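Dear U.,

For the methods section draft, I wanted the exact inputs and outputs in one place so we can describe them consistently. I've listed the two proteins in the order they'll appear in the manuscript figures. Please don't edit the token lines directly; just add comments below if something needs changing.

First protein:
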Amino acid sequence: MSQVYGAIHLLRLFAKMGPMLAYTALDEKSLQHVLMHIQDFLKYMVTNRSTLFNLQDYGNATPEYHRKVQ
């Protein structure tokens, strides 16, 4: 699925994860542990950004695509 959606969609998940974590039953120590792993993963993405984020992977959707998704 990562080849279909790409790293940008994973970043969108991370952006929404903060508010979602507020609704978990995690204690403070567990929450800090999860946040540490998220930060490590985001650092990995920054380090490997030239491989993970490629402008050529994105394009404009065709009118046919827009008709199908409406």
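Second protein (the one for the lower panel):
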Amino acid sequence: MASPQIVWLRRDLRLADQPALHTAAKAGPVVPVFVLDDERPRGDDDRTYGGAHRWWLHHSLESLATGFGRHNARIVLRKGDSVSVLASLADQLGAGAIHANRHYEPWWREAEEDLRDALPEGCELCLHDGNYLMPPGTATTGSGDPYKIYTPFYRSMLEIMPPRDELPVPPTISQPSDLPESDDLSDWNLLPTSPNWATRMEDFWKVGEDAAHDRLKWWTEHVGEYEDGRNLPSVDQTSQLSPHLHWGEISPVTIWHALKDKRSEGWKTYESELIWRDYAQNIIYQFPDYPRETYRDAIDDNKLWRNPNRGHIIQEELEAWQQGRTGYPIVDAGMRQLWALGWMHNRVRMIAASFLIKHLLIDWRHGERWFWDTLVDGDYGSNATNWQWVAGTGVDSNMFPRIMAPLKQSDKFDAAGYIREWVPELADLSDDEIHDPSDQCRPDDYPEKIISHKEGRERALQAYRDMKDD
């Protein structure tokens, strides 16, 4: 009889196009294991799951358990250090192998190395590529080095496409007759209770593999509208597949194959964003501390940023940004949407990030950490890459002196309806007034601007000049 095969689940919570599960199911009886590990990610830069992460994870694991249940199989849930838990289970089961899809966050790469050394004799660690279009390091320069700049990376990816073929759900998933004990998911207390701040998330999101495929079916009919619609927050012609991708409820390979025959500009743009997701993993593969270390030596963190830890006024401004009380309606709408849904429209993410970094001159890392804590799709690589791009500090980034004008952006991209939804105290204002309410029409319960656009822009440019002159 074949020995049991453990499948170590992390951000790959699906049955379809799941290389680790696919291989394990052909090799022997399968024991899928998810370990809630709050130890490995803590390290020097605490990357334990934020509240929005935990909310999504609870529902995704529920959905995955249902999926396995259709095959008369179940998941083993454990809490603790992944390496210790998995090595112990491998010994208990007499497992022949642990199968896992590679993850590129530094704590997971370290855990994979440690696990290889900790396994009992006769058990091997088999790593598979399943969460990205191509493994990091596939697209390289002529000299064989990994790319740092997105555009040549993108072109190289297009040249080596297509990605691998999509894998089906295993037709049968057998399991050992005596499975190890499992934690009860409800005992992990992943859901908020007092208070339950996730009520709007519950109404908005459908979580799990089935929901991801339903969303993809919808998106196949609408991706052609993406080129124009993606920048309009009031229309929100976006896929909303990002949390499903982040948690691995659907693979980018599945999405690519579903859309590959489209001929629209919308698909070309969306494909480039799937490739950007791969690019972000290539960046953290090269620079594991990218979410907390400025890449450009020309940026002096101590001279450019106003640090909230150095004064209560700066801290109050950070909190006003977090709470959507800056006096800039498009920024406030985005930050309130983020808090309510664990998600924000992509165009507004850029506007809100630029406002924090340049109008308020607050270090981009404060924004990156807030997004990490509040986004259901908060991704270690993508989040950091996006923030460093906006800040002008990244390996490939916008220049710091290029400062977005949030009020013009709001008007240009017709955000009036979006603002009315998320900043209801402004709902009665006309389209002409709502983007930048004057003192005459601004309601008493809506704050004045923290800083005017002109003053914020000039202060940021002067700070940049002063830093360069030192």
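Candidate sentences for the figure legend, describing the second protein: The longest helix spans residues 265-286. The domain at 132-164+208-286 is CATH 1.25.40.80 (Serine Threonine Protein Phosphatase 5, Tetratricopeptide repeat).

Thanks,
Y.
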